Every structure is written in C-alpha cells, then in structure tokens.
Amino acid sequence: MNDFPALGSTCRHQAWLRGDETSRRLYCLAMLPRMITIWRKRIYFRRDLEAMAKANPHLIDDIGMKKWQVEAEIAKPFWQR
To answer: Which branch of life, at top level (predicted)?
Structure first.
C-alpha cells in the first residue's frame, strides 16, 4: 500500500527525479499535511488496537490477527508502516 498519492503535476515529478533542489522542497512541503494525517491515523489505529487487545483479547482473532502480530504492530513507531 502506497501511503503517498501520485503528484498532480508531471513536471514537478520529473524535476524531483532530476534532483532539482527547489522542486524537492516544494514536494516535501506539499506532502507534509498528508504525512501528518497518515501518522495520526497510525497512532489512533495502534492505540485502539492496544485498547481492544487489553479489554477484549478474544476479538483479535475476529479481525484476523494473531497475538504476536498485534504486539508487533503496537510496538511500531508512528512513522513506520
């Protein structure tokens, strides 16, 4: 799953590939709100998963995960997929 959408402008994307420093900065700034949104969703998901694992551990099987998978997911930092 790709966390970042494709660029709307091919020109900016091509400049990014060429290594144009200004384009890199613009690309990074344009992606910042999207990255923050993704990070927040991961934080909320992992927090809710942890709460569910503690309160109702039998529901972990219902979502198709094993206990070790849940523990591994909870242990990840927010920036990691």
So the answer is: Bacteria
Domain ranges of the chain: 10-75
Quick one: average pLDDT of 3-25?
59
Decide which of 58 and 9 is more confident: 58
Rounded Cα–Cα distance for residues 74 and 66 (Å) = 12
The gap from C-alpha 2 to its chain's centroid, in whole angstroms, comes to 9
**13's torsion region: left (phi>0), alpha (psi -120 to 50) or beta?**
alpha
pLDDT one-digit tens code per residue, 16-37: 566 677 777 777 888 899 999 9
